[in-house]
């Protein structure tokens, strides 16, 4: 391979690729053209290379095929290997729109903007990986970025006075939650992670790791510039701003930035109350003509409860997460394999308890779940009386506040091996994750597809034979 070509300017290669797709479209094909780049959102150059993207090395080619079928909403992609997520530039949004015949619960906006926000480290992903391998924490991030930029290079969104705009905001960071607010404007929440919401209006929104919120903003203020500010939940406040510019105006934004709702402990209580205000729009159509509320999850009996208590520990003087129960844990807590066997089509409840001082966030692949409760303290079965069993948001990521618990419910109706993991980069890398194995007793293509042709294999399964396909169904008599 030839000498790497370094772009002389800040480049975010993959994040510039935004996929706008229509629900029900046939298979879509995307080609990632990978170049070398120098990334320096805080003035510290960081060189990218071909290991830092969500596609294989340059030797083989690999095509991702998926059908946008039954899940509208705002999403993003990023690399899952090592600490490549910290390399920057290799994530981007995927927006799935409803089919034309499916009504959405608001008028079509003038335009849509993708806003990828998150914390950032000026040290490269190789250095950060060495920190974790040596037993250190990643420490405090160096700043916050919007669409890969900060400071004087922060993005500007141009608005036409009187028009309504949709902002799809995702927290693609590595460690911290953020609070989003816009000077002089309110935000009408319309969607969270694929679910239309009750359209409450907010002055600011807490968006935690891995979460995507969709809001409508009306350009109904005096034509001038306004600041969009991000920060939250850190002892040392990390802030960055973007600019909303009204067309035809040359008046700069006020230097008085919108204040955050507050930090711990009052900020945590405020954030929990905001979570409780987030509700599913039961009358809006989903990706199909039936309304979102046609699935009555609150009337289904729970067949299994899984309780997860995360903790930090040190083994051989190295920081690790979830290796074993803490010394002061209850006697009945035991260690278990990192693969949990689930029963196909069982309705389960998962409880997350956070005994630490920082906010946690968890993501379950392959599923959406109902986020039915978040409360301070410890969970007990009696807490089920406080669950939202009517209009909890169906989503795939849940936050857990310090010294608090969160409860989710889902049906194990998707066969496969699914990762339940911390969205925090260092926690995920150091072991705060497990897998849920869901097998179909019928071993049918109706329940689980075959391994894709050409699937790249690695690790201990690299040289193993591909599993045989299931037998064909019996011929009709």
What secondary-structure arrangement, pairings included, does this model have?
Blueprint: E1 19-22, E2 38-39, E3 46-47, E4 73-77, E5 92-97, E6 111-120, H1 125-133, E7 143-146, E8 156-159, E9 164-171, E10 178-182, E11 187-192, E12 195-196, E13 201-202, E14 204-207, E15 212-218, E16 225-231, E17 240-246, H2 266-277, E18 304-310, E19 312-315, E20 318-321, E21 339-343, E22 347-354, E23 360-364, E24 369-376, E25 394-395, E26 397-400, E27 404-411, E28 416-422, H3 425-429, E29 433-439
Parallel strand pairs: 1-5, 6-9, 8-17, 18-22, 21-29
Antiparallel strand pairs: 2-3, 4-5, 6-7, 9-15, 10-14, 10-16, 11-12, 11-13, 11-15, 16-17, 19-20, 22-27, 23-26, 23-28, 24-25, 24-27, 28-29
CATH class of the largest domain: Mainly Beta
The separation of the N and C termini measures 60 Å
Number of domains: 2
CATH H-level homologous superfamily name of the largest domain: Cupredoxins -  blue copper proteins
In terms of structural class, how would the helical and strand content be classed?
Answer: mainly beta
Shape estimate: globular
Share of helix among residues? under 10%
Largest sheet composition: 7 strands, mixed
Protein name: L-ascorbate oxidase
GO molecular function: copper ion binding; oxidoreductase activity
Family: Belongs to the multicopper oxidase family.
InterPro entries: Cu-oxidase-like_N, Cu-oxidase_2nd, Cu-oxidase_C, Cu-oxidase_fam, Cupredoxin
């Amino acid at each position: 391979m030839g000498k790497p070509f370094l772009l002389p300017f800040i480049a975010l290669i993959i994040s510039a690729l935004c996929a706008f797709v229509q629900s029900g479209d046939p298979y879509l094909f995307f080609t990632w053209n990978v170049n070398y780049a120098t990334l320096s959102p805080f003035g510290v150059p960081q060189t990218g290379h071909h290991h830092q993207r969500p596609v294989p090395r340059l030797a083989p080619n690999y095509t991702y095929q998926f059908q946008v079928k039954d899940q509208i909403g705002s999403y993003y992609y990023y690399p899952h290997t090592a600490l490549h997520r910290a390399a920057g530039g290799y994530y981007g949004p995927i927006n799935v729109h409803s089919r034309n015949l499916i009504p959405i619960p608001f008028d079509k906006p003038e335009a849509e903007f993708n806003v990828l926000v998150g914390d950032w480290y000026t040290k490269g992903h190789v250095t950060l990986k060495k920190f974790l391998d040596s037993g250190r924490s990643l420490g405090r991030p160096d700043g916050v970025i919007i669409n890969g930029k900060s400071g004087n290079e922060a993005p500007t969104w141009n608005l036409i006075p009187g028009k309504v705009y949709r902002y799809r905001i995702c927290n693609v960071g590595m460690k911290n939650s953020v609070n989003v607010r816009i000077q002089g404007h309110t935000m009408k929440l319309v969607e969270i992670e694929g679910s239309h919401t009750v359209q409450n209006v907010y002055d600011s929104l807490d968006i935690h790791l891995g979460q995507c919120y969709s809001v409508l903003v009306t350009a109904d203020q005096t034509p001038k510039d306004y600041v969009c500010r991000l920060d939250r939940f850190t002892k040392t406040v990390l802030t960055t701003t973007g600019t909303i510019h009204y067309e035809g105006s040359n008046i700069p934004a006020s230097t008085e930035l919108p204040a955050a709702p507050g930090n711990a402990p009052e900020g945590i209580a405020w954030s929990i109350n905001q979570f409780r205000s987030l509700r599913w729009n039961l009358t809006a159509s989903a990706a199909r003509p039936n309304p979102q509320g046609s699935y009555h999850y609150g009337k289904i009996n729970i067949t299994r409860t899984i309780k997860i208590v995360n903790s930090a520990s040190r083994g051989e003087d190295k920081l690790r997460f979830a290796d074993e129960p803490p010394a002061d844990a209850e006697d009945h807590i035991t260690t278990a394999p990192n693969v949990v066997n689930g029963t196909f089509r069982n309705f389960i409840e998962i409880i997350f308890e956070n005994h630490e001082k920082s906010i946690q966030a968890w993501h379950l692949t392959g599923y959406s779940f109902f986020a039915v409760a978040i409360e301070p303290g410890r969970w007990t079965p009696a807490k089920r009386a406080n669950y939202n069993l009517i209009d909890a948001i169906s989503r795939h990521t849940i936050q857990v506040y310090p010294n608090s618990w969160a409860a989710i419910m889902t049906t194990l109706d998707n066969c496969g091996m699914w990762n339940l993991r911390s969205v925090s980069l260092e926690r995920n890398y150091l072991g705060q994750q497990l897998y849920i194995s869901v097998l179909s007793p019928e071993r049918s293509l109706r329940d689980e597809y075959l391994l894709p042709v050409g699937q790249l294999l690695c690790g201990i399964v690299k040289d193993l034979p591909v599993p045989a396909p299931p037998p064909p169904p019996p011929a009709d008599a």
